[in-house]
Amino acid sequence: MPHCHTHIEKLRQRGYRITPQREIIIKAIAHSTSHLTAEDLLELIRTSSEAINIATVYRTLEMLVEEGLIIRSDLGQGRAVYAPHQHGPHLHLVCRQCGEVFDADHTMACSLREQIWEQHHFEADFSHTTVFGLCALCQKKEE
Predict the structure, then answer these.
(1) What is the per-residue pLDDT for 87?
(2) Domain that holds residue 114
(3) Is the domain of 56 the same as that of 104?
(4) How many CB atoms lie within 10 A of CB 69?
(5) What is the pLDDT at residue 37?
(6) Least enclosed by CB within 10 Å: which of 3, 20, 32, 75?
(7) Cβ neighbours of residue 83 closer than 8 Å, sequence gap 6 or more
(8) Residue 134: predicted pLDDT
C-alpha cells in the first residue's frame, strides 16, 4: 500500500475526517522526494486543485506533524520545510553563508547521543537534525 494510503488510513482510524483537500495534500507530501515548504506544496498541488489555500496547507501539515506522519525541519531559510518519514533519517548540514544544504549520515551523531545520555539521561533524537556551519567553498573564500 502506498504511503499516502497508509497515512490516510491512520488518520481515519484516529478520528480525522479526510476531506478532498486533505487527501490531495497528503498524497503530494507522501510522494515527495525532497523537502517542501508549505508554499512549495501549494504550488505543486495547485495543478490538481484551485480549491486549496495556504491556510489549509499549513493546518494539514501541522496535523501530519502532530500525528508523527511527517517531519518538520528548519534549514535556516526563515520557514519550515516538511518531508515524509520515508525520506529517512539524516543530518542536514547547512552553510550559514551561502545557504547550501548537504545531507549527511545521521549515525555520525551516535557518540554525541551517547554522551548526552550518559551526562544528562536525555534521549536525543538526531534522526532528522540540522547543523549550521560553513561549507568548504565558503571557508576557502574567507581565507
Answers:
(1) 65
(2) 89-142
(3) no
(4) 19
(5) 92
(6) 20
(7) 29, 32, 34, 35, 36, 70, 71, 73, 128
(8) 94
Kindly report, residue by residue over 78-133, the tens digit of the pLDDT: 788 888 776 667 788 989 999 888 888 888 888 899 999 999 999 988 877 888 99
Q: At 63, list the grid cell.
A: 496535523
How is the chain classified by DSSP, letter by letter?
--HHHHHHHHHHHTT----HHHHHHHHHHHT-SS-B-HHHHHHHHTTT-SS--HHHHHHHHHHHHHTTSEEEEE-SSSSEEEEEGGG--EEEEEETTT--EEEE-GGGGHHHHHHHHHHH------TEEEEEE--HHHHHHH-
- Number of structural domains (the chain) is 2
Verify that 36 and 62 share a domain, yes or no: yes
Q: Are 67 and 17 contained in the same domain?
A: yes
* C-alpha angle 6-12-55 in degrees, rounded to nearest 5: 95
Are residue 14 and residue 75 in the same domain, yes or no?
yes
* pTM for this model (two decimals): 0.76
pLDDT at 1: 42
Residue 5 pLDDT greater than 80, yes or no:
no
Residue for grid cell 488510513: 9
